[in-house]
Amino acid sequence: MKVTGIVPRGYCKGVIRAINIVKETIEQPGPITVLGMIVHNQFIVDALKKRGAITIEDASKTRMELLDEINEGTVIITAHGAGDCVIEKAKSKGLNVVDATCLDVIKTHTLIKEQLKRGKDVLYIGKKNHPEAEGALLINPEHIHLITSKKDLETLDKDKHYVMTNQTTMSLYDVYDLCEYAKKILDVEIMKETCSATQIRQEAIAKMDEDVDLVIIVGDPHSNNTKKLASISTDKAHKETHMIGSLEELDLSWLKGKKHVAVSSGASTPTVLTNQIIDFLKQYDENNPDSFIKTEIPYEKML
């Protein structure tokens, strides 16, 4: 069986930066609390916990609400960013604030603030309840409109002039479709903000070898960019695709009769997990039970 590791894969620069910031902050005295998952991968969260950084995460709560659970020490803003009001609230509680927001997310926030100053309403393509989208919308909830589908565009005032941007981890194909539709029905200026790491990974998936008959996408189910890779593999490349968090979740029945397997991963997936899967597939032989044995997850190599 041929195995192809699709390039690029592994951590993007924003993830590396965020993890390093937490590792550096852990050296400071006092409790360290991360306001949500630092990046969307549970293995990383667990590894940081072992080093002393506690994560508070609740999908039913906003970052503002989660702050009510932190009363001392240092709070770390995740790579997804947060609204200025979240940071102000943290400081008002006497907390030391460390900002690990991805620089691409900061760039999008700056763009949004500049357009708001110009008196424009902003259309923000994003995923509802995603922390990156939440942080962007909190900049000005009255004049920033979350766009998740064409239906959201159809409810807007046709007499206004809008600026349109997006969550950095969205599918570039979904963003393109929504932008094109918006231009047909609204007076809108497009300022797409899909980060380069996300875009390059998505393009690589869409252009994979034609003879690939199975695609494995490695990543956490919380990760939007990972889920978008899987959807592009299925919907654009028309490949049988499975998204898994680690080697433990690899179902050997998927491999039966396969000739060429491709592997990619989300931008917050530890490289060691992806490499472990690639190594397993390279030695796998469906006629040799000895090759079915999975090695243990190398937790000590997560960070």
CA radius of gyration is 21 Å
Provide the number of structural domains: 3
Strand content: 15-25%
By CATH, the superfamily of the largest domain comes out as 4-hydroxy-3-methylbut-2-enyl diphosphate reductase, catalytic domain
Low-confidence stretches: none
User: What would the principal axes of the Cα set say about the shape?
Assistant: flat
Order of helices and strands: EHEHEHEHEHEHEHEHEHEHEEH
**CATH class wording of the largest domain:** Alpha Beta
Helix content: 25-40%
- End-to-end Cα distance: 31 Å
Which structural category do the helix and sheet elements fall into?
A: alpha/beta
Largest sheet: 4 strands, parallel
Main sheet strand line-up: 1-12-10-11
Classify the oligomer.
single chain
CATH topology value of the largest domain: Cobalt-precorrin-4 Transmethylase, domain 1
Structure at a glance:
Helices cover 37% and strands 18% of the residues.
Features:
303 residues; alpha/beta; Cobalt-precorrin-4 Transmethylase, domain 1; Rossmann fold; four-stranded parallel β-sheet; 11 helices
Task: Describe what you observe in this structure.
With 303 residues, the chain is an alpha/beta fold. The chain folds into three domains: 2-10 and 197-301, Cobalt-precorrin-4 Transmethylase, domain 1, CATH 3.40.1010.20; 13-102, Rossmann fold; 104-194, Cobalt-precorrin-4 Transmethylase, domain 1, CATH 3.40.1010. Helices cover 37% and strands 18% of the residues. The strands form three sheets. It has a four-stranded parallel β-sheet with strand order 1-12-10-11, sandwiched between helices. A four-stranded parallel β-sheet has the order 3-2-4-5, with helices on both faces. Strands 7-6-8-9 form a four-stranded parallel β-sheet, with helices on both faces. Helix 9 runs parallel beside helix 10 (224-235). The protein is flat and about 65 Å long. The model has no long low-confidence stretch (mean pLDDT 95).
